[in-house]
Structures are given as structure tokens and as C-alpha cells.
Design goal:
single chain; 7 helices; seven-stranded mixed β-sheet; 199 residues
Length: 199
């Protein structure tokens, strides 16, 4: 990696503090970072490494805090992360943070609507998908999400317990899909795990 682990850790801590202060000071959703917890970051890092997920997709970059956890893990196993964010403001923040992190070579930041990125992605394009975006959009994205996730691939959805009611329609769709086996993990804000059948 280009920068030391110590400097990456310092950046993560800085972003955790920034997110907490920023989100406590504004109620405007478009300006809130809504970052994952550190516990969730550690969990994602382990999952990426354990599943040898070299092609990672993150839907919902925000300021890039979660991306750093994913990219650090993917980079360590010869992979990379594609992360998509619609907000120009957050794309600017994330881009600057990636440049500081030493992980920029492992990250492709896409400024676009997630549905457009999914539509133009190839079948089985990704080994691992982390979904942390506009929850009301998830049911409409499902067919594309399941198409671009490779057989044996893993989908992880944030806020599965903190926003269980909002996610309920999507959880029902995923749970009813014969190709997917699901599990709810209650760390952080709750993570829904869904693995796609390998054949």
C-alpha cells in the first residue's frame, strides 16, 4: 500500500469524528454523512477477505469512510472497489479522502445514479455488493442487483436493524428469492447478508 497503516487509521478516525460532528449539526439528509460504524467497517473488511472478493461494488459512497474499509481489504487480495454516489457534494468529499488515503489506485469513484451503473454493468460483474444508499430504491434495483452479483457472491445491506421497517419490503423480496440464502447480523446498525447460489 502507498501509505502507512498508521496514516490510514488516522484518516479513519478523523472521518469518524467529522461524521459524528457533522451529522449532529444538521438535519438535512443530503448533507449528513450517515457513515457505517467502525464495527461494521471491520466486519466488511473480514467478509471481503474471507470471500476473496476482488470485484467489490459499493452503492452509496457518502464521504468515502466505508469505501476505505472495503478498498483496504480488496487491495490486500489484489482486488478493487467500484463505488457510486449521486451527490456531487459527497463525491467531492470522497475524492479528496481517497487521495489522502493511499488507496486511490484500488477505488473507482463513479458520480452517477446507481440504477444507471447497475444497468450498464455486465452479468456477474461483482463478487461482493455493499448496499448503503436510498432504501426506498432497493426494491426497484433488485433485478439488476441479482443480475450483476456473480453466483456465490455476497450482498450486504446496511441499516437492517436501525431502519428495519423501511427495509422490510426489500428484505421480503430477497428472502423470497430462491437463489439467495439470507442472514441478519445485529452488529452496528444491522447487516442483512444474502449469498447467491453458486449454481
Amino acid at each position: 500500500m502507498q501509505k502507512s497503516t498508521d496514516s490510514l487509521e488516522a484518516l479513519k478516525i478523523e472521518l469518524e469524528r467529522f461524521g459524528a460532528v457533522n451529522d449532529g449539526a444538521t438535519a438535512e439528509r443530503s448533507r449528513r454523512m450517515l457513515n457505517i460504524t467502525r464495527e461494521t467497517g471491520e466486519f466488511l473488511s473480514v467478509l471481503v477477505r474471507a470471500t476473496v472478493a476482488r470485484r467489490v461494488l459499493e452503492v452509496g459512497t457518502s464521504n468515502g469512510y466505508s469505501t476505505l474499509w472495503l478498498a483496504e481489504a480488496a487491495g490486500a487480495i489484489g482486488g478493487s472497489v467500484t463505488t457510486v454516489e449521486f451527490s456531487e457534494y459527497k463525491v467531492g468529499l470522497a475524492s479528496a479522502n481517497f487521495a489522502r488515503s493511499g488507496l486511490a489506485t484500488y477505488i473507482m469513484l463513479v458520480h452517477d445514479d446507481a440504477s444507471r451503473l447497475l444497468q450498464r454493468s455486465e452479468v456477474s460483474a461483482f463478487d461482493f455488493i455493499f448496499l448503503d444508499s436510498e432504501r426506498s430504491e432497493y426494491p426497484g434495483w433488485w433485478q439488476q442487483l441479482r443480475r450483476v452479483l456473480r453466483p456465490g457472491g455476497l450482498l450486504v445491506v446496511d441499516n437492517a436493524t436501525s431502519h428495519a421497517a423501511q427495509l422490510a419490503p426489500f428484505v421480503a423480496i430477497v428472502s423470497a428469492d430462491y437463489l439467495f440464502t439470507t442472514s441478519l447480523v445485529t452488529l452496528g446498525n444491522g447487516e442483512l447478508l444474502a449469498v447467491k447460489a453458486s449454481s
